[in-house]
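Structural prep section.
Before we set up the soaks we want a predicted structure of the protein with iron/sulfur cluster in place, mainly to decide which crystallisation condition to try first. Input record follows.
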Amino acid sequence: MARHKTQDAGLVSQMRTRLAGVSSKAWRRLLAAEKRRRGVAPGRLVFVGIHNVADVWWCAERAVRKAREREARFFGAYLRDRIGYSLELGRVERLPHRMEDWLTVGEDLTLSDINRLLAARRKRLHDDGRAVVAEARDDVLFVDPALSEDKKEWCAEWARTMGWELASADEDPSVYREMLLLREGERYPTIRWQFAWEGYVLVGVPDGLTDELVYEFRVAHADQVARRFVKPVATAQADLLAQFFRRPTRRVQIHVTASGKTYTLSGLADRERASLTLRTFGEVDAGQPPSPPAAWKCEPGRCEYVATCQVRRPAKDQ
Ligand code: SF4
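Run finished without errors. Recording the tokens verbatim:
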């Protein structure tokens, strides 16, 4: 039954810790149970990241393959959010004992609830808005390459003490993007949420979300790459997020590392383009052959699927 007071923060964090400890095997078992509950075949793709859908503007074949590979991860995000937000809003007091019963928690959450949670995060952002200069992931300390030498030395000492490897953040695109977002991007609160579309559950988290806009931040190494190849994907993702979160406008920034410039594209979200992106993803997932992308995207080292891909242009065209 719905309760109106918000849940104790300590209890919420305790439950989140328990969820974080669930093994990947258990998540896969739950995913299979959820597909049975929805009456869909085990092999049918359901849980997809919105950024994977937007990637059809890079290569539709790669977008669909990646989405299939990551389905269990997005299912985990879907369920953790439903449970975590239900606890945060005081809709449930604790996790049900049987894991299968977790699947129905949060069914009653609406976008208004998510907007309420976003408003709370907006207040919090002013309290802890600091830039990250180093981040530890899986025993590796990634350090911002723009740090001064003495700060890098301080990080190296920290890594030695902790027994971590030391790496420059630009060696991992996702870590580097997040660091640059904090250093070069604009600061907004945000929240992850999920949306139903044609039998899929699309999970998305903008880099920023206000009542009026979604904000998306990307990194490119050169101007030409930013304009020709990163911009279509970034704007498509922002259009999708604006459509699902029901925000009228989108703001996209692309930071170019070679020049240090940041391009900004602002305007009304393009609903037709969002529909085209969704349609393209759905058709390729259903088996329709996609158009091959620019040949250089299929070079070994740029695409992990090159050895098994039938879509790329034949060598004579490259
Ligand atoms: S090899 Fe080329 S066509 Fe195939 S998935 Fe990769 S980028 Fe796409």
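Observations: Residues 1-5 have pLDDT under 50 and may be disordered.
Flagged for discussion at group meeting.
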